[in-house]
Amino acid sequence: MTPTPIDIAGAGAFGTALAITLGNAGHPVRLWARDGAAAIDAARENTRRLPGYTLPPTVRVTGDLAELTAPILILAIPTQKMDEFLGRSAPFRAKALVSTAKGIHRATGLGPTALIARHRGADTAIAQLTGPSFAEDLARGLPTALTLACTDADMARDLQHALSTPALRLYITSDVIGAELGGALKNVIAIAAGAVMGAGLGESARAALMARGFAEMRRVARAAGALDETLSGLSGLGDLVLTCTSAKSRNTAFGMALAEGRSPDPAVTVEGLATAEELAARPELDTPIADAVAALATGALTLDAVIDMLLRRPLKPE
User: Fold this and answer.
1) What is the pLDDT of residues 267-301, one digit of tens each?
2) Predicted structure pTM score
3) What are residue 127's DSSP bridge partners?
4) Residues that bind NADPH, according to the entry (predicted)?
5) How many angstroms separate the CA atoms of 95 and 51, rounded?
6) Do 29 and 149 belong to one domain?
7) Per-residue pLDDT tens for 82-127?
């Protein structure tokens, strides 16, 4: 079977890792980088975003969006930059657009696929790729399983076969809302988990926070029409466990920095912050952890006040 050509827009760590993974599986891959494309292509390494990992010969790096002509285009663009990117980009020829973004767009309240839908052609399928994965694990070829969500069942199966590799296993679902929300909401809980560890509250407290955070994720997702089983899968629980228990998580590191009184790195994308602020602005939702994260991050409450607020909530059945 002839490998499918695949384009990837966005040469951050995850986009680069996907290019390496798919390229090593034999796919001709074109990776678009906003800056420094020629240098990355010449060096065969993205030294800024994913140093130490060599691009295979099947991967070519470009700075010209017009060169993205493959039937599958993976959009490895952060959620908060997705709308702007699509609004200024030339129309893509791809028959399937696959988002890897996580979070809720602050200006519109939309998820990644809804943002893409505002710009896509009528004959373009849109899918969401999400789940527990770190860029370095993908680039090293370590076993990884992800969720691919798409409402078009035939396209979902085609993408599942096209994007799966010996080390990357994809599971499909039609519940795009659930898959998107799992990836967005777990980042909020990860900030809280990082704050718990940064404050020295211990692993027992982190485990309790993760369990109650998962319950909060399920409440929000159900209110949006998502399926409970989706949140219990790779894109919800799986991603939550990975993100909350690893110091490699940007959101966990952000929470730790807040608790320790350090200034987080402004150059690092922290998807969970915008999502927490979006949830906190919706009083009809029961989201005490998201409310606490938003209050802590904006300085509205101190860490001690946040802890006291959560511990003083009324006792109730689990």
Assistant:
1) 788 999 999 999 999 999 999 999 999 999 999 99
2) 0.94
3) 98
4) 14, 34, 102, 135, 250
5) 32
6) yes
7) 999 998 876 788 899 999 999 999 889 899 999 999 888 667 899 9
Decide if 128 contacts 179 (C-beta within 8 A): yes
Q: What pairing do the DSSP bridges indicate for beta strands 144-149 and 125-130?
A: antiparallel
Task: Identify which of 92, 263, 290 has the alpha carbon closest to the alpha carbon of residue 184.
Answer: 290
Q: Are residues 137 and 241 in the same domain?
A: no
Where is the binding site for substrate, in residues? 102, 250-251
Which residues are annotated binding-site positions for sn-glycerol 3-phosphate? 102, 131, 133, 186, 239, 249-251
Write out the binding residues for NAD(+): 10-15, 135, 250
Total number of domains constituting the chain: 2
CB atoms within 10 A of CB 70: 21
Kindly list the catalytic residues: 186
- Rounded to 5 degrees, φ, ψ at 150 are -155, 135
- 34: domain CATH number is 3.40.50.720
